[in-house]
Design goal:
The complex is a heterotrimer of chains A (307), B (489) and C (224). With 489 residues, chain B is mainly alpha-helical. Chain B contains 19 helices and two strands. Chain B is globular and about 70 Å long. Classes of the chains: A mainly alpha (307), B mainly alpha (489), C mainly alpha (224). Chains in contact: A-C, B-C. The interface between B and C is large, with 50 and 41 residues.
Chain lengths: 307, 489, 224
């Protein structure tokens, strides 16, 4: 009973928080760049606007294009359920661990890639090839880093991994996961979330063919995925303030600290985005390779030092 | 009382030197300050050897016999180098190498440098000892770079960086010692020498072993023990000659003093003679590393610098070997080396100013061109290579004897071979310089009489100690050896 | 007289985190080539050390602790970075150029050093007092990383920065393991650090004006 209400509450929180996190990051970037950005609620308004519009789909495309947004949305939301957010333990704890989490993210990406190829648009194909090339480097780094954290505690359950001791392995894994987070959220220096320029885009290229409700779903899903990645960082490296029991007071503290943590990590992402330029596409593997290297080193120190 | 005056005088002199402009006024303040320091220092040293350790300012200043030997070395060389500086700098100003406006800075730095060394050997707290050693680096680096030529700046930079890295490592050793001691005493006085020695037997052996390793690496860098000596030839060759004399004769031995303090602690706290073995090993490495550089050396001041590496190694070996003979010979050698090396750097200063170079191939026919300097050069070179009747012969003989007494045949073999080669090489260099045919005719150049007086102090002491050992000096050295062997009794 | 404002357990947790954070900052500064950013990271280290000293002071409630924290703030977090920035403004360089070895190689080597220090000192002293499992290894690792950074740097100014980082590692160990050194020593060390930075800045200033560069590779006249 509590698990179900926890799941509902957490999903609701994530659904609402997702567009606002994007808004906060955009606002912070605007401040750092010295301009007056849109309101924090603007991504939410955009979603509402898209939801009210009709979705137009190419007549040469198949059912894949119609299903992909749903798959992407559901996998992202399910991934959020695997993470502890404001409560000490994740609501879907029994259903999966960090490996399932990585798998869900990969499944969503796979669906989106198929859809982009299905429309046979040039931009879709280009975006897909880039996204998949990045993914081939990001996913091993993500898994390795998570394993490096899992080995010292002897469990792959997210809540257990989050409670591990501080040490070199954790430090290096943090470095690796931060780079992974930048790549997974499609941010500078890996990708540019603000433009549809063909030179720079990867993720935006894949969703170029969508409109109306389908676009709303895809955009919302990628906001949720961003929350998932940020929550993962927060859960693993800022494990403070989460609610231990299902009481109103501690839940309120938990929610407040969770929102604070989202803001802090979002701030770090925005800061990285403003202090670096977009990397040339051929240099991106260097950065992602560094993430794999850090993760590998974390794994080694997990073995050697034990933490 | 005298002790406080001794520690207060050099900074006062430094400030006064900075306060006046006229070169003659500054020079007289400087000389008077040096003389007063000498007198006060000798009084303090005499009291320590007569009545035992002296403390002042609560217990934060503590001078025992080991400190007293170092104080004696510092004040004697201070006075000699102070006299020598005056003439040396006059000549530098005349030749345009140093602007007059820089003179006050030199004298101010000089006395600050002396002060930091006096503080080094007389504080009770090993942490403050560290602070003072680092201060000597900072002050003397400015003096090494005093000429501001590219080479001098390069030497100053290397000196600063290498010695500061070393000293940071030594700080870790000090910290570990404090950690070991706070577990016992749980007090702020846990780094005081007197407190540490009282509890030396209970300190954690594992921590103290690690602490000694860090201290040996750290202060060993400062003392110029090979393979950590890379800064030393540069700094010694580029500094003004009186400063080179102080660096080589006193500063290295102050760093050795710091090592010996920790050695005394470690030899009680860590069973199995670990620190002695480490000292002997580093000492022998230093002696062996210095030899090839002395043989092929072309620069006079660098030759002397490598000779310092060799002699620092000898002293470390002597203390490491231990036994009453080794400790006695080590203490004697410390004193002898300081005096002989100071004399040689003064001579080198004269030669450098006369010939305008430190390249030995250009320094030829010294005996004819400068009879006094030339004969002192020969005398100093004979002394430093351990030829009788000079005192270094006695101490080196004692060190090798200590090797025999301890049955450390490897040490004996290395020492005999190294000393033999160094003797031949340095002797050859000295003869070439003294009697070789000069390439160019030299202009007439006479040095003021004061400068001769500066040379006479170390030269006289060296000859005297070689032929006659005053009983007071002998008993003082025996007290030091006893202290090193057993701790404060 | 003494009021304790922080429980020992909370202090331990915070100090443990600070140790690892200091290690992280020093590791970052190994990978940073902009001199101004390196100096900023030095100020961050100073801030972390101030926090560590402050936490120890809050937990022990000793006046000495508060004084040490204030001293750390003044010297390490403010004075030293400001002096270095002053030198940087007069220096003919902004970037560390032509790294001796690439970052791709430097990073694994640096991690190797970290693992070595965990391996070597991890079991040396049992955790007690405020000493946690990360403190001493992290301090030694910072010392080694600072030294490593120094070997990889060619500009005189970045060598100073690396040197101060080394000293910071020690200071961390001092604050946590022994709750600071005796007060007189602590003040002496702080004074030494200040003078050291001043003297080194002065010499590197002259190096800059004499060699038209802060490249220590040019300092190779003295050999043998």
């Amino acid at each position: 009973m509590t698990a179900i209400s926890l799941l509902l509450g957490q999903s609701l929180l994530v659904l609402v928080a997702a567009p606002f996190l994007n808004g906060v990051i955009k606002a912070v970037k605007a401040v750092f760049q010295g301009r007056r950005g849109p309101s924090v609620a603007q991504p939410a308004f955009d979603l509402l606007k898209y939801l009210a519009r009709e979705s137009v789909v190419s007549e040469h495309s198949s059912w894949i294009v119609r299903c992909a947004p749903l798959v992407y949305f559901v996998t992202s939301l399910a991934a959020a359920g695997l993470l502890p957010t404001f409560f000490d333990r994740p609501p879907l704890e029994r259903l999966g661990d960090v490996v399932v989490l990585v798998g869900l993210l990969a499944l969503g990406r796979f669906a989106l890639a198929l859809a982009a190829l299905d429309t046979a648009s040039n931009f879709g194909g280009m975006g897909t090839s880039r996204e998949m090339a990045f993914a081939a480097l990001v996913e091993p780094a993500l898994l390795l880093a998570l394993f490096a954290l899992a080995i010292p505690v002897g469990s792959t359950a997210v809540a257990e991994v989050a409670g591990g001791p501080w040490g070199p392995a954790r430090l290096l894994a943090l470095g690796a996961l931060f780079i992974v987070a930048i790549a997974e959220t499609g941010r500078i220096p890996v990708d540019n979330p603000d433009t549809h320029l063909e030179l720079t885009m990867a993720h935006e290229g894949m969703i170029l063919e969508y409109s109306g409700r389908a676009l709303a779903l895809v955009t919302w899903a990628s906001h949720i995925k961003q929350v998932v990645v940020v929550s993962l960082l927060a859960a693993l490296f800022l494990p403070w303030g989460t609610a231990q029991q299902a009481q109103l007071g501690s839940l309120a503290v938990g929610v407040a600290s969770y929102l604070g943590k989202l803001t802090v990590v979002g701030l770090a992402l925005a800061l990285t985005e403003t202090s670096y330029a977009k990397l040339r596409i051929f240099r991106v593997p260097d950065l992602l390779g560094a993430a794999s290297l850090l993760a590998l080193l974390a794994l080694i120190s997990g073995y050697v030092v034990g933490r | 009382m005298f002790l406080i005056a001794l520690l207060g005088l050099p900074p006062l002199t430094a400030v006064l030197c900075r306060a006046f402009r006229a070169p003659s006024v500054i020079a007289s303040i400087h000389a008077l300050g040096g003389f007063a320091t000498l007198c006060l220092g000798l009084v303090v040293v005499g009291r320590v050897f007569a009545d035992g350790p002296v403390t002042a300012v609560g217990a934060s200043v503590y001078v025992d016999q080991l400190s007293a030997v170092l104080i004696a070395v510092i004040v004697v060389l201070d006075f000699a180098a102070a006299l020598y500086s005056i003439g040396y700098l006059q000549r530098e100003v005349q030749s345009g190498a140093v602007p007059v406006s820089q003179l006050p800075w030199y004298y101010c730095g000089y006395h600050t440098f002396i002060w930091t060394m006096l503080v080094t050997v007389s504080v009770n707290n090993l942490g403050l000892l560290w602070v003072a050693v680092e201060a000597t680096t900072l002050v003397s680096a400015l003096l090494v770079g005093f000429h501001r030529t590219p080479a001098a700046l390069e030497a100053a930079w290397k000196y600063l960086i290498l010695c500061t890295v070393g000293i940071v490592i030594a700080l870790f050793g000090v910290l570990l010692t404090y950690y070991a001691s706070t577990r016992l005493t749980a007090g702020e006085s846990g780094l005081d020498w007197t407190v540490l020695m009282a509890h030396a037997g209970q300190l954690d052996p594992g921590i103290m072993r690690l602490a000694f390793v860090f201290v040996l690496i750290g202060f060993g860098t400062k003392a110029g023990l090979a393979p950590l000596h890379n800064w030393l030839p540069d700094a010694h060759s580029q500094a003004p000659s009186p400063i080179s004399a102080l660096l080589s004769g006193v500063l290295l031995e102050c760093a050795l003093y710091a090592i010996f303090r920790f050695h005394m602690l470690a030899s009680i706290a860590v069973p199995g003679g670990f620190s002695s073995r480490a000292l002997v090993t580093l000492g022998l490495i230093s002696v062996s590393v210095a030899v090839p550089f002395i043989v092929v050396q072309r620069d006079l001041k660098r030759l002397l610098a490598y000779s310092s590496v060799e002699h620092v190694g000898l002293i470390a070996t002597a203390i490491g070997l231990g036994g009453s003979l080794g400790l006695y010979a080590g203490a004697l050698h410390l004193f002898n080396h300081a005096i002989a090396k100071a004399l040689l750097f003064f001579v080198a200063g004269n030669l450098t100013q006369r010939y305008g170079t430190t390249r030995m191939s250009r320094i030829r026919g010294v005996v004819r061109a400068m009879p006094v300097t030339g004969s002192l050069l020969l005398m100093g070179m004979f002394a430093i290579t351990g030829l009788p009747p000079f005192a270094i012969f006695l101490s080196e003989f004692g060190i090798v004897g200590a090797g025999f007494a301890q049955g450390n045949w490897l040490a004996v073999a290395i020492l005999i071979v190294a000393l033999g080669i160094v003797f031949a090489a340095a002797f050859g260099h000295a003869l070439d310089m003294a009697f070789g045919r000069p390439r160019t005719s030299l202009e007439k150049l006479t040095f003021p009489r004061l400068r001769g007086g500066a040379l006479a102090i170390p030269a006289g002491l060296m000859v005297l100690l070689g032929v006659y050992m005053p009983p007071a000096f002998n008993s003082a050295l025996q007290q030091v050896a006893g202290l090193l062997a057993s701790g404060p009794r | 007289m003494t009021t304790i404002l922080l429980s020992a357990a909370a202090a331990r947790g915070l100090l443990d985190t600070i140790s690892v954070l200091l290690l992280a900052v020093v590791l970052c500064s190994l990978l940073v080539y902009q001199l101004d950013l390196a100096i900023a990271l030095l100020a961050v280290q100073g801030g972390l050390l101030t926090a560590a000293a402050g936490i120890v002071a809050l937990a022990t409630g000793s006046g000495h602790g508060y004084l040490a924290a204030a001293l750390t703030l003044a010297v390490k977090a403010i004075a030293v970075p400001v002096m270095l920035l002053w030198v940087l403004q007069r220096a003919p360089v902004r970037f560390e150029q032509q790294p001796v070895i690439s970052r791709k190689l430097a990073l694994p080597l640096a991690v190797g050093l970290i693992l070595f220090s965990y391996f070597a000192t991890g079991s040396l002293v049992a955790p007690e007092g405020y000493l946690t499992a990360n403190t001493l290894p992290a301090a030694v690792a910072v010392l080694l990383l600072g030294f490593f950074t120094m070997l990889l740097r060619r500009k005189a100014l970045s060598q100073i920065v690396a040197l101060i980082a080394m000293e910071n590692g020690l200071y961390l160990a001092a604050v946590i393991a022994t709750r600071g050194l005796p007060l007189a020593v602590e003040m002496g060390v702080a004074l030494d650090v200040l003078i050291a930075v001043a003297v080194m800045g002065w010499v590197s200033n002259y190096l800059g004006s004499t060699f038209q560069s802060l490249d220590v590779d040019r300092l190779r006249a003295l050999r043998g």
